[in-house]
Amino acid sequence: MTPVDSPSAASPELDSAARDGWNRLAGAPRAGTDVGNRVIAVLVGLFTFAIYWMTLSPDVSFWDSGEFIATSHSLGIPHPPGTPLYVLLGRVFSIVFAGVLHVASVAQAVNLLSAVPAAIAAIFLYLAVVRVGKKLWNEGDQSTFCLPAVVAGVTAALFASFANTNWINSIESEVYSVSGMWAMVSAWLALVWADSEPKDERLLVLIAYLLSLNIGVHLATYLAALAILPFVFLHERRLAIPVSFVVVLAMAKDLQFFLLVVALLVPATLQLALVPADYERRHRATLLGAHTIATLVALWAATELDPSPLKWGLAFGAPLLSFAVPWIALPPPKKLENPFLDLGFLLTLVTVVGFSCHLYLPIRSALNPAINEAQPDTWQRFWEVILRQQYKPNSVLDRQATWLYQFDHMFWRYFREQWHPEFLWWALGIPGLLVHLKREKKSFVLFGLLFLWTSFALVVKMNFTDHEVRERDYFFSPGFFYYGVWMGIGLGWACWLVVRGLAGASRFALGGAAVAMSLLLALWPVRAGWDSHDRTGNWIAHDYAYNMLSALDPNAIIFTNGDNDTFPLWYLQEVHGFRKDVRVINLSLLNTPWYGEQLRDEDPKVPMRYTTEQLYGLRPFQDPKTRRIYWVKDIVTNDILNARFQGDATNDSNTDRPVYFAVTVDDLMGFDPYLNLEGLVFKFDPDSSKSFDTMKLAETGPRDFPDGEPEIVDNVNLPVTRRNLEELYHYRGLLGADGQLDPTVHRDDNDQKLTTNYAAAWAKMALAYRGLGDMDQAVYCYRRASELAPQYDVIASGLGGFLLEAGKFDEARVFYEKRRQTHPDDIRVYLGLGYVARESDDWEGALRYFLEGLRIDPRNPDVMAGLFQAYSELDRWDEAENVLITWLKHFPDDKSARDMLQNVRNYRAELANRAGPPAAPQGGGDESK
User: Fold this and answer.
1) Which has more pLDDT, 627 or 393?
2) What is the spatial distance between Cα 424 and Cα 259, in angstroms, rounded to a whole number?
3) Is 477 helix (H, G, I), strand (E, B) or coil?
4) Backbone angles phi, psi at 555, to 5 degrees
5) Which of 184, 211, 792, 866 has its CA 20 to 30 A from that of 838?
């Protein structure tokens, strides 16, 4: 029944095309539409989202997550290039899911900004692969159901969505899922456009808008453009000008150069679009000459002139002036084309409109939000943020690591880790790639280029070092996503091989079995990766930040090192309003003058003596005597500390603020004597004499402390550190209710690395107590350290030594026997067991353990000393003498060993000449070291 208000009912004279357009708007399926395909697409998206929801991070994560949540909630500006669209979308998600629906916290809401787009990307990947699959196995008929194509689409979406890196990116606050969604939708639209007859240019306009808008999320948009534009050119040759943009982009040394050349091409493109064809032919030489001269002038200004109004005037004024040639130097054309209907004009218009979301940056920056990175409130700063000048790339010609390292360790290793079991990627992906290449070359160009630009080409472009601060697999996550296309096509092709040529019950049975097997294969990575991707109960980053902030004195200043010890603190301050009295100073950002300005001028203000002009004039320098390089951060830090403790700040800041350094700061700039450990932070105290040095005990022997033991020992504030670790700190996701490591929460390498700082604090307390001679407390603290970081062998292996030193030999034996099961080649295990046996006068047992140690390390001096002592105690002087002879073969200049050997030989000679037992040789076994 036709609705009474539909155009078809009111206007029977409408043609079929108009009715079809109305039906599409109303949601009514067209005749021959594969409705089941749409239903399956939605089911794929819902299933993907369900998995992401169940494994979603419950709060903030390490790295960029804290910054993105904080800036989304407070409408701040994250690190360049500012990601304005992501921040705005994050704010919307925060309002809707946390503020209106109350189904999530702010952190979870912004985490959903990764999960929802990732699920949408899965839907459109499914649709794209099914469209390609119907060309492979259904003669291109898009209107009917095609089982192999559906199998290919479903499995491709699952393989892509649950690749290791993509799964991680989809369950925490990051930009990659949003960016990937726009790119995948654009690729699907390109496929739809290619199949439309006549070609629907509106789809190209929509693609251009989506891609330009996506620059506000991530700059990797241009990688999608590098694939989509050549694919479009294969179907429409007249689109050569947009393809020339791709060529320029591929050749560009940086984004600034690319934007300049595009700006030069746009006026020429628009002019050719607006003037009539016959006019353009008659005046082609003049028009081309004007644009060529303008291009040369603009390029000369951009590359040769220093930044100035003249430079920018020539760079952008010249092409605009050339645009006016028909109205200045030539008779104006009598009839102009309608610019609003021209494809070139529309593509340019929507690109500008999409990119205009970046205007958020200067507008918001001028309002001084709490997080205002690079402070793009002027044209110059705004341009520097867009171009990411804070992260200047190195030339691709100057490799920062070997090609083998970059391709094998920095890409191929990541690629192999994406799917478990590993054979899936080659057993399915390679056949799928070959089938796609052979039977559908044009769409292969699209997906082949999408994969190429986001994988191998990216290795060349990013030019990673061999000492990156973190794993860089997330850069290649789009490539892993697009490779899932071929894994799905490979499974679809296998199903097609099974059912082709069959009919009736056999076709149904085998087809059903093939579909079931394909789904099991596609779901295998989900099951295999569940434990390592499930973030349920992981509050480690949140509590790490809480613990660091909560223990600080009021109005404190804390210097942090990088992303992991800064962004979670910003998150707690901006989202939860926790400890906003504390001023966090990121040492990495302190190298930039804008950050120094903010610290000095915005509340809570930091004491500082430098003026703005001085901040912008600071440069690194090298001390000619010590050869040490002083970076800008070192210079500004010294200024802050001098202003704080000398009280001569130029601003109206609080100069009584306590100062701390996070324990994650690797370069303490020579302040070590003035820093006392208080858990996860060092407190700065200009009076270094307050810390008792246990080396004095080693020099003078034990002493009494009439006023009680000192509180600060070896720069460890024992009562404060212990109170923080035992009473104040939270350990959700790390420790269970029993105080032991929580086995239900997965902790990745980064979680384990950061939480090792808890263990390090306990270990430093243990060393301080040992220095005071309190071995009971030393063992207790070290036991806590080893329980918190069993994966950190430097700490875990040391407990046995403390037990031995405390005389707890039974516990030491148990410790070393357990460790022997997990570390059978650890020389320290056999030395420890040998010492335990020695203390029990079990010299035969000690001998066995020392011989095991000799097998592992024949040149270990402690092993040789233990062997010599064991052989001596057992009166096996031949073997004892051979130990010393062997040692001297390795170390002939060891005088103490040579003297010991001579003593042994004298002893044996005397033994042979005397009836009674002589005195034992002088020196003792340990002198053979």
Assistant:
1) 627
2) 41
3) helix
4) 60, 35
5) 792
Tens of pLDDT, residues 306-329: 767 777 777 777 777 777 777 777
CA distance 179 to 174: 10
Residue with the larger pLDDT of the pair 143 and 169: 169
Tell me how far CA of residue 213 lies from CA of 86, 93, 228, 914, in angstroms: 10, 18, 16, 99
The beta-strand segments (E) located in 324-460 are none
Which pair of structure tokens corresponds to residue 682? 């060092």
Phi, psi of 735 (to 5 degrees): -115, 145
Q: Is the CB of residue 803 less than 8 Å from the CB of residue 778?
A: no
Residues sharing a CB contact under 8 Å with residue 598, sequence separation 6 or more, in sequence order: 372, 375
156, 489 Cβ separation under 8 angstroms? yes
Mean pLDDT of 137-153: 92
Burial 749-785 (b: 16+ CB within 10 A, else e): ebbebbbbbbbbbbbbbbbbbbbbebbebbbbbbbbb
Nearest Cα residue to 692 out of 781, 750, 772 = 772
The Cα 811–Cα 808 span in angstroms is: 6
Q: Is the pLDDT of residue 701 over 70?
A: no
Q: Tokens 């035992």 correspond to what residue?
A: 726
Residues 553-612 have pLDDT tens digits of 999 999 999 999 999 999 999 999 999 999 999 999 999 999 999 999 999 999 999 999
Phi, psi torsion values for 198, nearest 5 degrees: -70, 165
Which amino acid is located at 598 in the chain?
Answer: Q
Predicted confidence at residue 5, as pLDDT, reads 40
Confidence of residue 247 (pLDDT cuts 50, 70, 90): low
- Which pLDDT does position 11 carry in this prediction? 38
Q: Rounded to an integer, what distance in angstroms lies between the CA atom of residue 507 and that of residue 499?
A: 6
Strand partners, 683: 660, 676
- H helix or E strand, kind and range, residue 562: none
Specify whether the CB–CB gap between 511 and 495 falls below 8 A.
yes
Residue 682 pairs with which residues in a beta bridge? 661, 677
Q: What's the predicted TM-score (pTM) here?
A: 0.86
Report yes or no: 802 and 795 within 8 Å, Cβ to Cβ: no
- What is the helix (H) or strand (E) element at residue 684, kind and residue range? strand 681-684
Which residue carries 């934007």 as its tokens? 259
Look at residue 917 in the predicted model and tell me its pLDDT. 56
* Bridge partners, 681 (sequence order): 662
Angle of the 309-323 helix axis to the 255-274 helix axis, nearest 10: 20
- Bridge partners (DSSP) listed for residue 557: 583, 659
70 and 570 Cβ atoms separated by less than 8 Å: yes
d(CA 465, CA 462): 9
Region class of 22: left (phi > 0), else alpha (psi between -120 and 50), else beta:
alpha
Give yes or no for residue 918 having a pLDDT over 60. no
167-185 mean pLDDT: 97
Degrees, nearest 5: CA angle 308-309-315: 95
Q: What is the 8-class DSSP label of residue 689?
A: G
Give the residue among 121, 127, 196, 135 at the shortest CA–CA distance from 442.
135
Contact 399, 463 (CB under 8 A): yes
Which run of H or of E encompasses 717? strand 716-717
Rounded to a whole number of angstroms, the distance between the first and last alpha carbons of the chain is 100
b/e map of 240-252 (b: 16 or more CB within 10 Å)? ebbbbbbebbeeb
pLDDT in tens, 780-825: 999 999 999 988 888 988 999 999 999 999 999 999 999 999 999 9
Type of residue found at 852: E
pLDDT band at 266 (very low <50, low <70, confident <90, very high): low
What are the beta bridge partners of residue 662?
681
Q: Average pLDDT, whole number, for the chain?
A: 87
pLDDT of residue 913: 81
Cα–Cα distance between 17 and 516 in angstroms, integer?
Answer: 41
pLDDT score recorded for residue 392: 72
Backbone angles phi, psi at 314, to 5 degrees: -70, -40
